[in-house]
Amino acid sequence: MEPAEVEFLAEKELVTIVPNFSLDRIHLIGGDLGPFNPGLPVEVPVWLAINLKQRQKCRLIPPDWMDVEKLEEVRDQERKEDTFTPMPSPYYMELTKLLLNYASDNIPKADEIRTLVKDTWDTRIAKLRLSADSFVRQQEAHAKLDNLTLMEINTTGTFLTQALDHMYRLRANLQPGESAQSQDF
Amino acid sequence: SFTQGSKLEIPLWLAKGLHDSKRKIISVEPPKIYKEAWRTVFSADANVVDLHKMGPYYYGFGSQLLNFDNPENPEIAQTTFINRFRRIMDSSQNAYNEDTSALVARLDELERALFQAGQKGLNDFQCWEKGQASQITASSLVQNYGKRKFTDMDG
């Protein structure tokens, strides 16, 4: 997958906005949205929130987890544990990027948040590589990694599957009965 | 023409065709790098070996050699790969917007392809993070056509 595709999926997540316009409930194929009343918070998917924000029709309310203290806890937890901690959102990376790019004026301490999320991401990716290395070294057949997000899997996935394919072929070469076909003449 | 017992260099495909465990027309001697002597080098530090110089298709060629019933250590390719894996992974996923020629110099072709995969994952992510994933850019093919301005064209 492309990161843009992962982001596309992330944009279905709900976020709270405060609109400055009125609109009756709208019926979309994916579900109903609204009604929208000025000053009243309402939950909408991120794709719509970003669009409305760009058109200056709303302000965004950051999700609960997008807060310096909470993210510091998450980052510290991640650094402490060998396994992956559950993330406050399966799309934490994408949502952070989107909301901070388009609505940083609605998010207090935006720069700190960006740094904290990036630090957490870096720690997790480093853990992923450590896991991959020990997986290859011990020639495991099966691994289970909980609490990884799609973006993390997507960034290292191609490399890892190719490496494992190669390992498999090398291992298969060692099995007896792999003799080449030869013609009698 | 050649006589029995003489030593020749022939391409792998020919050796494969001539090889037959039953009739033993030829016996194959693998290139130096696949032999016991090199094993000490590999086990000391597999990352140091220049697999590109020793024959750029180390793993592929090595796999083919296993067809010839040679009693050399068959696991060396696997062990080598396992030892080199970490460095390939780390360098391919950390080197962003840099000249990577030094990093890939000692990798064989298969490892280089793997390196490319790692780079692509990294580059795609970085590009997305900077917000460039949604920018429209001219295709690199078009840019290479050697721009000619409309006013410069003949006729």
From TrEMBL, chain A:
<dbReference type="GO" id="GO:0071162">
    <property type="term" value="C:CMG complex"/>
</dbReference>
<keyword id="KW-0539">Nucleus</keyword>
<feature type="domain" description="GINS subunit">
    <location>
        <begin position="65"/>
        <end position="168"/>
    </location>
</feature>
<dbReference type="InterPro" id="IPR007257">
    <property type="entry name" value="GINS_Psf2"/>
</dbReference>
<dbReference type="Pfam" id="PF05916">
    <property type="entry name" value="Sld5"/>
</dbReference>
<keyword id="KW-0235">DNA replication</keyword>
<dbReference type="Pfam" id="PF25005">
    <property type="entry name" value="PSF2_N"/>
</dbReference>
<feature type="domain" description="DNA replication complex GINS protein PSF2 N-terminal">
    <location>
        <begin position="2"/>
        <end position="61"/>
    </location>
</feature>
<dbReference type="GO" id="GO:0006260">
    <property type="term" value="P:DNA replication"/>
</dbReference>
<protein>
    <recommendedName>
        <fullName>GINS complex subunit 2</fullName>
    </recommendedName>
</protein>
<dbReference type="GO" id="GO:0000811">
    <property type="term" value="C:GINS complex"/>
</dbReference>
<dbReference type="InterPro" id="IPR021151">
    <property type="entry name" value="GINS_A"/>
</dbReference>
<comment type="similarity">
    <text>Belongs to the GINS2/PSF2 family.</text>
</comment>
<dbReference type="InterPro" id="IPR056784">
    <property type="entry name" value="PSF2_N"/>
</dbReference>
<dbReference type="GO" id="GO:0000727">
    <property type="term" value="P:double-strand break repair via break-induced replication"/>
</dbReference>
<comment type="function">
    <text>Required for correct functioning of the GINS complex, a complex that plays an essential role in the initiation of DNA replication, and progression of DNA replication forks. GINS complex is a core component of CDC45-MCM-GINS (CMG) helicase, the molecular machine that unwinds template DNA during replication, and around which the replisome is built.</text>
</comment>
<dbReference type="InterPro" id="IPR036224">
    <property type="entry name" value="GINS_bundle-like_dom_sf"/>
</dbReference>
TrEMBL record, chain B:
<feature type="domain" description="GINS subunit">
    <location>
        <begin position="35"/>
        <end position="128"/>
    </location>
</feature>
<dbReference type="Pfam" id="PF05916">
    <property type="entry name" value="Sld5"/>
</dbReference>
<dbReference type="InterPro" id="IPR036224">
    <property type="entry name" value="GINS_bundle-like_dom_sf"/>
</dbReference>
<comment type="function">
    <text>Required for correct functioning of the GINS complex, a complex that plays an essential role in the initiation of DNA replication, and progression of DNA replication forks. GINS complex is a core component of CDC45-MCM-GINS (CMG) helicase, the molecular machine that unwinds template DNA during replication, and around which the replisome is built.</text>
</comment>
<comment type="function">
    <text>The GINS complex plays an essential role in the initiation of DNA replication.</text>
</comment>
<keyword id="KW-0539">Nucleus</keyword>
<dbReference type="InterPro" id="IPR021151">
    <property type="entry name" value="GINS_A"/>
</dbReference>
<protein>
    <recommendedName>
        <fullName>DNA replication complex GINS protein PSF3</fullName>
    </recommendedName>
</protein>
<keyword id="KW-0235">DNA replication</keyword>
<comment type="subunit">
    <text>Component of the GINS complex.</text>
</comment>
<comment type="similarity">
    <text>Belongs to the GINS3/PSF3 family.</text>
</comment>
<dbReference type="InterPro" id="IPR010492">
    <property type="entry name" value="GINS_Psf3"/>
</dbReference>
<dbReference type="InterPro" id="IPR038437">
    <property type="entry name" value="GINS_Psf3_sf"/>
</dbReference>
<dbReference type="GO" id="GO:1902975">
    <property type="term" value="P:mitotic DNA replication initiation"/>
</dbReference>
<dbReference type="GO" id="GO:0000811">
    <property type="term" value="C:GINS complex"/>
</dbReference>
